[in-house]
Design a protein that fits this description.
12% of the residues lie in helices and 36% in strands. The protein is mainly beta. The protein starts with a strand and ends in a 17-residue tail after the last strand.
């Protein structure tokens, strides 16, 4: 994932939002979220949105990560790439 010209790599497990939507997310590791927020918070837009370029497997896309104050980290939405990259709950992704 890139943001502000900086590249970040991490491993995370997808999870599904409990609401009615089919949105899946990966929570960034808390320390990574803190580092990103400390360095790039000034670029955040409404609701803690920070533009980013994400990559999982062979898929790369422009997206945004969203700061979640309850989890104290950013969330990466996965809805559009979930089927193409065979993203499953409980399967670690890098």
């Amino acid at each position: 994932m890139t943001g502000g010209g900086i590249r970040y790599t991490f491993i995370g497990q997808p999870w599904k939002h409990k609401g009615q939507s089919a949105w899946y997310f990966i929570s960034l590791p808390t320390e990574l979220g803190k580092e990103i927020r400390d360095n790039l918070k000034w670029q955040e837009e409404g609701w803690g949105r920070l533009k980013a370029i994400a990559q999982i497997g062979n898929s790369q896309w422009k997206t945004s990560i969203w700061f979640d104050s309850k989890m104290n980290t950013y969330l990466l939405p996965l809805k559009a790439k979930r089927k193409k990259e065979f993203i499953r709950i409980g399967k670690s992704l890098r």
